[in-house]
Amino acid sequence: MGTTRSHPRTHFARRMFELLEPICLVTFFADECNEELAALGHRTYWDGYFASRAAPLGRVPAHVVHAAFYNFADGEAARHIPSAWETIPPAASVAARLRGSAASLRRILGNELAGSPGLARAAELTTKAATSAPTEGRVMYAGMRTLEVPGEAVARLWHSATMLREHRGDGHIAALVGARIGGTEAHVLSALEQGIHPPESFGRIHHLRKERLAAVMDGMRARGLVDADGHFTDAGRATKQRIETLTDELAAPPYDALSPAELDELITELEPITAALVATGSQ
């Protein structure tokens, strides 16, 4: 897929999200990262998740992590922060996440693709973009920017893709806040967009108290975002689309650091990497 600067910047951002997201997802879907975090002493998947993802922010309180992550229910961050750091230094969790994620990529991609000049070039260009955006208003991205960029190509690609993922996530939260969509409401909109009904059955929220979910759905009905049966209204669908469009717009600045030729090259080099990961579900 070729790219030129004549296309809207949002197209760049959306295409890069499609290409980079499978790289980042090995952290959550593949075994190696969880195994590395468990070997440190983290008792559960979520202990490791909160400890390693929040660590670049420093030893901040749970309510700060809750605010930065945005879409977890009240009290979920506090079940893991700061207890997950009490015996395991945050830096150790960060390092374990990197080791495990890079190991997953190498296994899935195989020696030939993982060691290819194309992957090395993709890592170089992704890092150029990931280290070029302003940090103002980007809390999670700013935290990632404090970490050292790995030298080895596979680890470098994962690290820089994850920086861009956090940059995009910060912008997505800004779009949600601007639309007055809370974290649980955001999951409801995502569920409906994926065709999941009732949306309360979505895996990210189905465990919440029924009273909490009922209150969220009632509030969304009152705003005209869902109908009486819990389906999208036209207004709800339009709200979701506005949020996604603004998210793409806010995710575009890192790619201003790349020339049109570099953007084309990056897409070309990432496509076989992403295809290999999608084929395995990033597992």
Jot down its keywords:
single chain, 283 residues, mainly alpha, 12 helices, globular
Write the layout of secondary structure elements.
Elements: H1 9-29, H2 31-40, H3 45-54, H4 62-69, H5 90-114, H6 117-130, H7 139-145, H8 153-178, H9 183-193, H10 210-222, H11 234-251, H12 260-280
H and E order: HHHHHHHHHHHH
**Poorly predicted runs of 5 or more residues:** 1-7
* Total beta-strand segments: 0
What is the beta-strand fraction? under 5%
Major sheet: size, sense and barrel closure?
A: none
Instruction: Calculate the terminal CA-CA distance, rounded to whole Å.
Output: 25 Å
CA-based gyration radius: 19 Å
- What is the average of the pLDDT values? 95
Structural class by secondary-structure content: mainly alpha
| Spatial shape | globular
Number of alpha- plus pi-helical segments: 12
**Percent helix:** 55-70%
Short précis:
By secondary structure, the chain is mostly helical. The protein has helices at 9-29, 31-40, 45-54, 62-69, 90-114, 117-130, 139-145, 153-178, 183-193, 210-222, 234-251, 260-280. 42% of the residues are buried.
What can you see in these coordinates?
The relative contact order is 0.16. The chain has helices at residues 9-29, 31-40, 45-54, 62-69, 90-114, 117-130, 139-145, 153-178, 183-193, 210-222, 234-251, 260-280. It is built from twelve helices and no strands. The two termini are 25 Å apart. Helix 1 packs across helix 8. The chain is globular, with a radius of gyration of 19 Å. With 283 residues, the chain is mostly helical.
